[in-house]
Amino acid sequence: MNIIEKTDEEILAMANLLWRDLVKASNEGKYGEFAKNFSGSLARAIDQVVAGHQFANSELARSLSEDVDSLGIIRRGEHVTVLYRQRSTKKQGEWLGRLVLGYEDGKVRIFGASIF
Fold first, then answer.
1. Residues 6+ apart with CB under 8 A from 73
2. CA atoms within 13 A on the CB side of 74
3. How many CB atoms lie within 10 A of CB 22?
């Protein structure tokens, strides 16, 4: 199955749950929970020590608001990128969230996640 064949509504239903879980785990500094839906390739690419340091030292990573807006979906190859307007509970302004999803072993997995 290719995720790009899903409707926007189906993609957003999956993506919004995964994004919410990422926000919650990030705010709590729980790297294991944060990475639980990562694809194998993403999990291998991220250094747990560096990620743990980011959680400990990034005010933004520990103060993500649950108040987010989905901005759109980009389909490419076997992945979709869902863009979010992300806010913080402690910092003024808005950030761009990016969540890349695809299938791995029959399950929807996270192939990329970032906030700019």
1. 8, 11, 12, 15, 80, 81, 82, 83
2. 8
3. 22
Give the DSSP per-residue string, 46-106.
S-HHHHHHHHHH-TTTT-B-S--EEEEEEEETTEEEEEEEEEBSSSSSEEEEEEEEEEETT
Residues forming beta bridges with residue 86, ordered by sequence position? 95
Which backbone phi and psi does 47 adopt, to 5 degrees?
-75, 120
Q: What is the pLDDT of residues 23-74, one digit of tens each?
A: 999 999 888 888 999 999 998 887 666 666 676 778 898 999 999 999 999 9
**15 within 8 A of 101, measured Cβ to Cβ:** yes
> For all residues of the chain together, what is the average pLDDT?
92
